[in-house]
Design goal:
This protein has helices at 7-18, 27-30, 53-65, 118-126, 144-149, 157-160, 195-199, 233-247, 259-268, 292-305, 318-329, 331-338, 350-367, 396-408, 428-431, 434-447, and strands at 23-24, 46-48, 70-73, 90-93, 109-113, 130-131, 167-173, 179-182, 208-215, 217-218, 223-230, 251-257, 281-288, 311-314, 342-347, 372-378, 383-389. The chain is an alpha+beta fold. Helix 13 (350-367) packs antiparallel against helix 14 (396-408). The structure holds flavin-adenine dinucleotide.
């Protein structure tokens, strides 16, 4: 048996692969945050920044041989601790994988490297007649590779689907350095197992994604955003049904927000209240079509006639729409008011949502009478986010138990879109049965037998 390499030998070997400016240590590591929210500085062996797929392959071959854990990192905006590092880890940053290929207008596709931030892709695509189907609040930093690895969802899932529906093909590097090119450019490709899907949502545990071919959609010629106040959850569900039927596939967003989310942000964020009075429920909806404005006006008129909404405002231009979205996205203002909160991302059938939320809040209040619970989410996808503030970080594990275990009897999911990472691995059994977990473990063993890729993530 050969002795494991010293730290100096590891750094030297990685420097030979990527060059001396691309192996970062010491302060260059410590000045980056270890995930989101930004509370803990990164502390790991080094950050290595390859520029080519061959360099990624060489790094993985070396680390696999020497049993050195490797954590792939994109923008580190993931909300489950998937990109979090430990002291001996090599963080493999895709930040030099920034190329965006030419748009193929006939195929409606674009090939991109994994480190491209979502916003950069959106800007590149904006110049064409197309758009990219996934959008989310962390667009400035979240990368395509990270979004693939977490199967990100976001604001327009009801219309375009999650990342699984956007990826036609990809290139990934396996733990032993094998470069797997599964880069199909066509929508239909039934040639055995769909290998790319293995890597989508695998949170860096099965391979490092280096590039992908993405579907584009025809950009809607116009869109219209509205913000409404409602009195009951039944009315919110009825408005969703009405919008889905009247807007005929053009409804791209239906976000529900509770007062515990909206009111603190209005009080302490930099926003003007969109509506004159306070309401029990708020909905931010968007329709994207040639006649978006007329559709939204018609929808809201019908909703008023059916007494579903109490008040509403329609954005008259892009700036007003952006202000409504800024309110929905201002999690930082919420955290500024309440202090650090425990964040949850669950999904559950809409019909069970209210009962589940009431049950969770009752349990929380019986233990922490002053608990603050902010709720918002992508209602059409059954996806609710909860920000829970008890005042003490020591309560995190106990709150997890309340939020996650209550889901079991409703058949809900502990992770609608953020993944499992470190934070939810003890609760995987709430949403996955033993045979599913056993098969997942077998897939992991077969692709990464020496367990170097993001070890400890997803499974305990
Ligand atoms: C303000 C805010 C809003 C958000 N809104 C949403 C939302 O609406 N919907 C949603 O789904 N998510 C949302 N997120 C979560 C986050 O943005 C997504 O999970 C995003 O996909 C992570 O991308 P990233 O590049 O930051 O990945 P990272 O955080 O760097 O990594 C996430 C995981 O992917 C792995 N990984 C990263 N790159 C690669 C790669 N190239 N190959 C293999 N594995 C890789 C990491 O190891 C880790 O396990 C939000 C986050 C924030 C901070």
């Amino acid at each position: 048996m050969t002795a494991p390499p010293t730290n100096r030998e590891v750094l030297d070997a990685l420097t030979v692969i990527v060059g001396e400016h691309h192996v970062l240590t010491g302060e260059d590591v410590g000045h980056r945050w270890d995930g989101y929210p930004p509370v803990r500085p990164m502390d790991c062996r080094c950050i290595v920044r390859p520029a080519t797929t061959d360099e990624v392959a060489a790094i993985l071959r070396y680390c696999n041989y020497h049993l050195i854990p490797v954590v792939a990192q994109g923008g580190r905006t993931g909300l489950s601790g998937g990109a979090s590092v430990s002291v001996g880890d090599v963080a493999l940053s895709l930040e030099r994988f920034r190329a965006i290929g030419e748009i193929d207008p006939a195929g409606m596709i674009v090939e991109v490297e994994a480190g491209v931030p979502l916003e950069a892709l959106q800007q590149a695509v904006q110049k064409s007649e197309f758009c990219f189907g996934v959008d989310l609040g962390a667009r400035g930093s979240a990368t395509i590779g990270g979004m693939i690895a977490t199967n990100a969802g976001g604001n327009a899932v009801m219309r375009y689907g999650m990342m699984r529906e956007q990826v036609l093909g990809l290139e990934a590097v396996l733990a032993d350095g094998t470069i797997l090119t599964s880069n199909s450019r066509v929508l239909k490709n039934n040639t055995g197992y769909d290998l790319k899907q293995l890597f989508i949502g695998s949170e860096g545990t099965l391979g490092v994604v280096t590039r992908a071919t993405l579907r584009l959609r025809s950009a809607p010629s116009s869109s219209c955003t509205a913000f409404a106040g409602l009195a009951t959850f039944e009315a919110v569900l009825a408005l969703l049904r009405l919008a889905s039927s009247l807007c005929e596939g053009a409804l791209s967003t239906f976000e529900v927000m509770w007062p515990g989310f909206v009111h603190p942000i209005l009080q302490h964020g930099n926003h003007l209240p969109p509506l004159a009075n306070q309401h029990k429920f708020y909905v931010l909806l968007e329709v994207a079509s040639r006649s978006a404005q007329e559709s939204v006006e018609h929808l809201l008129n019908q909703a008023i006639k059916q007494s579903l909404i109490q008040d509403a405002v329609i954005a008259q231009n892009t700036a007003q729409a952006e202000k409504l979205w800024a309110l929905r996205d201002d999690i930082d203002a919420l955290i500024a008011v309440h202090g650090p909160a425990f964040l949850y991302d669950v999904s559950i059938a809409q019909s069970a949502m209210e009962s589940y939320l009431e049950r969770v809040e009752r349990s929380l209040r019986s233990r922490w009478p002053d608990v603050r619970v902010a709720k918002f989410g992508h209602l059409a996808d059954g996806n609710i986010h909860l920000c829970i503030h008890t005042g003490s970080s020591a309560d995190h594990a106990a709150v997890d138990v309340i939020v996650y275990r209550a889901l079991a009897s409703y058949g809900g999911s502990i992770s609608a879109e953020h993944g499992i990472g470190l934070e939810k691995r003890s609760f995987l059994d709430v949403s996955r049965n033993p045979s599913e977990i056993a098969l997942m473990r077998n897939i992991k063993k077969s692709l990464d037998p020496r367990n170097i890729l993001n070890p400890g993530k997803i499974f305990l």
